[in-house]
């Protein structure tokens, strides 16, 4: 669902009204590509009966690329399965929007089951840590069709819940507008006629982690690497960044959501966790990087950056540099890579120097499944 273009039929030429109707009919014929519905729900929320947001009807939402907006209004406590992935990536029992929002905010408007005054608000980011919305603002539409601020722009912590007083406890509201800045996740929203006795707090329970390996491990050893080199002696190109040919991760700036070690696996990626992914950054001019020592120095012919399972959270931009002697040289100039979400970027390299290490820099953050560096041996 996106905000529709508003127009006044009385002031619009008839042919444009007809065109607008055809346009709407065509768009209505397409099913929205929504993230998976939460099937296994948590236990009933003890405050659900008092929560005016529960059961609200969603009218508009700017983005719900990672998790459905309807989850924000659920009568159940949120659930979290660390091993559960879907078409869009990690399945979250929350409202979560995609990374790198160009307009700086996402917005949800919903109708209350019954118009009411609001004395207190609660905002939960449970299970969101490093990907929570940075700030939130809440407004209400009165019966007189006037938008009134209920909660001013408020900074949010990850994996926490805040109980906050309403700016207006007297007006009767029929619709609610939730605006997050700039993007990210909100788990639950609470709207109460009377103040609750609950207090703001971080959730003491740590976010669950997987207890079994999420990815196949390549059984690397010096003997295996040597054998791989011997068997590939007749090949024209070899992925010298691959673990199979002695590639090593030297360092990674931030592995909040996914281990950098996976980007040099010789196996094809199987899901979003099978790759390097950093937390969402909120600082201007931010970047993340990962450095790889190649299995052997050589002239690089081309580089592949695989974003197969990073559809909504691949980097905005990317650059690749190579180390020749003690000097870092540009191999792939900084470029926008959003268009390669869910695909592979094939980048030719024009460099005559022998390269011993490569550094992939992500702007401002994001995730990649694989990095393949092909050398002509």
Describe the protein in words:
The protein is mainly beta and 377 residues long. The protein has helices at residues 14-28, 222-231; strands spanning 57-61, 85-86, 89-90, 95-96, 106-116, 120-124, 135-142, 147-155, 160-165, 173-181, 185-186, 188-192, 201-202, 237-239, 248-252, 276-277, 288-298, 300-306, 317-324, 327-336, 344-348, 355-363, 367-368, 370-376. The longest helix is centred in the first third of the chain and has 15 residues, at 14-28. The chain is elongated, with a radius of gyration of 25 Å.
Separate helix tally: 2
For the secondary structure, the number of strands is: 24
Q: Please tell me what the overall shape is.
A: elongated
Roughly how much helix do the residues carry, as a percent range?
Answer: under 10%
Strand order in the sheet with the most strands? 1-5-10-7-8
Give the integer mean of the pLDDT values.
92
Structural class of the secondary elements?
A: mainly beta
Radius of gyration: 25 Å
Low-confidence stretches: 1-5
Largest sheet: 5 strands, antiparallel
Strand content: 35-45%
Task: Provide the succession of SSEs.
Answer: HEEEEEEEEEEEEEHEEEEEEEEEEE
Cα distance spanning the termini? 51 Å
